[in-house]
């Protein structure tokens, strides 16, 4: 009898928990939602988060706040989310850097992407562009490689994300270049130093690259994707000169471990509706992104695959984990 009463009690508790979770999902969001971003304002991740957040705010009637927390390779932002309540109100909006790439780039992390995240929604894709100052002596990638080979150890590159770091290292390895790499908290700072002449080149997300090229101070030489980018087809792929070169950044929303499935599905559905709106292709295009919705189950598998991929890329690029 005691066992039967215990089983009945457990069943009631489970039913109440399910009902509470469903009610929470139906009413999400009831208050401000925070997108924690591991990069400074003005970066591709920040602009993507703001674009999606603004659309969600209009459609759902609650504030979506962008909380930029750069530093420590993204770990500061990640731990802010990992330690948050799993209620769907504190979410990480990040590129692949903090979600998958860091596993390969750091000897140890204060978090485990497979254990500490609840995958919610894939958001979009982004290519990077090799950028130099307008007065750089080379006019194309072949000329850049020739110039770098003629000045071994003299060219300095800046990076502000795992994608830009690996882009530089892969270029150096595949082309046989000797360059010096300098880390930055975000690509915006690297671009500023490129403009100021402190570094010689960097890889910039294509939205920022187009904006800088239009101003005339910087010039794009090649794009990291396998195919030319529709936003600026005049920039050839690096792979045209270095076959097999292919690096694409991606963006996703994850929560801390333990976000109820009903809440996850509600957030994913709302984000997917935003991404499916016809105007989002234009809005994302303006910042160099291509919308790409992905559900929680697919995203979980994708993150696991990407961890394997980035371990391979980091190894191929001869990057020593920090």
TrEMBL record:
Keyword tags: Signal
Gene3D superfamilies reported in the protein's UniProt record: Bordetella uptake gene, domain 1, Periplasmic binding protein-like II
Cross-referenced InterPro entries: BUG, Bug_dom1
A Pfam family that the UniProt record links to this protein: TctC
Statement: the UniProt record of this protein carries the keyword Disulfide bond: no
Keyword match Transport: no
Signal peptide location: 1-25
PANTHER family: BLR1237 PROTEIN (PTHR42928:SF5), TRICARBOXYLATE-BINDING PROTEIN (PTHR42928)
Family designation: Belongs to the UPF0065 (bug) family.
Name of the protein described by the UniProt record: Tripartite tricarboxylate transporter substrate binding protein
């Amino acid at each position: 009898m005691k066992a039967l009463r215990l089983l009945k009690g457990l069943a009631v508790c489970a039913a109440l928990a399910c009902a509470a979770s469903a009610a929470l999902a139906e009413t999400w969001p009831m208050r401000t939602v925070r997108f924690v971003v591991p990069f400074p304002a003005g970066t591709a991740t920040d602009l993507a988060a703001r674009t999606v957040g603004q659309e969600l705010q209009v459609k759902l009637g609650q504030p979506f706040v962008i909380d930029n927390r750069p530093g420590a390779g993204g770990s500061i932002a990640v731990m802010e989310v990992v330690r948050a309540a799993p209620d769907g109100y504190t979410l990480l909006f990040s590129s692949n850097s903090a979600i998958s790439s860091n596993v390969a780039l750091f000897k140890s992390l204060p978090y485990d992407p497979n254990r500490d995240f609840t995958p919610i929604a894939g958001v979009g894709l982004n290519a990077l562009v090799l950028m130099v100052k307008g007065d750089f002596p080379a006019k194309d990638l072949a000329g850049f490689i020739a110039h770098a080979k003629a000045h071994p150890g003299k060219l300095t590159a800046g990076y502000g994300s795992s994608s830009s770091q690996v882009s530089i290292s892969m270029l150096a390895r595949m082309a046989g270049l000797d360059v010096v790499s300098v880390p930055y908290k975000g690509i915006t700072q690297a671009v500023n130093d490129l403009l100021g002449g402190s570094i010689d080149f960097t890889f910039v997300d294509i939205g920022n690259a187009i904006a800088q090229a239009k101003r005339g101070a910087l010039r794009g030489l090649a794009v990291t994707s396998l195919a030319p980018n529709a936003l600026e087809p005049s920039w050839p792929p690096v792979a045209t000169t270095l076959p097999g070169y292919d690096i694409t950044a991606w963006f996703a929303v994850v929560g801390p471990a333990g976000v109820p499935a009903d809440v996850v599905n509600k957030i994913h559905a709302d984000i997917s509706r935003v991404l499916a709106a016809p105007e989002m292709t234009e809005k994302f295009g303006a910042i160099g992104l291509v919308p790409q919705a992905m559900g929680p189950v697919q995203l979980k598998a994708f993150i696991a695959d990407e961890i394997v991929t980035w371990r391979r890329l980091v190894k191929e690029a001869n990057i020593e984990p920090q």
